[in-house]
Amino acid sequence: MAFVYVSGRPSLDFLGTRKWRTSRPEELLDVPVTFATWAVDAGIVHLPVDMDPDGLRRVLRLREAIYRLVVGHLRGMPWSANDLRILEEEASGPPTGVRLSADRSLRREGDLQSVMSTLARDAVELLGGPDADRIRECDRVDCTRLFIDSSRGGTRRWCGMAECGNRVKAVSYRRRHAAHRPAQPEERAGTMKRRLPHP
């Protein structure tokens, strides 16, 4: 499974592991190993953490709490005390550690608790910092991915060009050209036939 990291913050990329939330929800973290893989690919930890189904349920609980808090911020809605409690509980643990090896390579190490703490802390700093005003939702219909708009004019519309931007532009291009394309003889004949009354 190929995960996408285009949101600009680990906690927002974390939210993207559940896709198409309002139309056809797709869960990418369906088994424990998927989150362990995601955390490595996200650069949060160097090696996959050990986790079981209970750990995955805890991961999903944190993810959905962060999602509701971010959406609440975007819509100007009050935050749930329970979601804040979940976030604070997970953020209170030690984050992943860093180690510099003799070969000058950097390694991030930790267990499930520290990975979750790192994600929770990132969400706390995001929602309580200046980047909170730069959080956007992708403009593609049905895409619910959230991202940080770091463009100079604050005009970024898509979570990513490959994921959504290019597809929307391609659809728009085809529609524009279809609207200006002259009808072929077969199409005109078909239109005339459809307009004729039934015998």
Write structural notes for this entry.
The protein has 199 residues and is mainly α. It has one domain: Jann2411-like domain (Jann2411-like fold), CATH 1.10.3300. 49% of the residues lie in helices and 9% in strands. The protein has seven helices and six strands; from the N terminus they run αββαααββαββαα. The chain has a two-stranded antiparallel ribbon. A two-stranded antiparallel sheet has the order 3-4. Helix 4 crosses helix 5. The longest helix is centred in the first third of the chain and has 23 residues.
Q: Might you state the CATH topology name?
A: Jann2411-like fold
* Structure classification: mainly alpha
Strand content: 5-15%
> Could you list the spans in which at least 5 consecutive residues all have pLDDT below 50?
187-199
Shape: globular
The H/E string reads HEEHHHEEHEEHH
Number of domains: 1
CATH architecture: Orthogonal Bundle
Question: How would you summarize the topology of this molecule?
Answer:
Blueprint: H1 10-15, E1 18-19, E2 26-27, H2 32-41, H3 53-75, H4 81-91, E3 97-100, E4 106-109, H5 112-127, E5 135-137, E6 146-148, H6 161-180, H7 185-195
Antiparallel strand pairs: 1-2, 3-4, 5-6
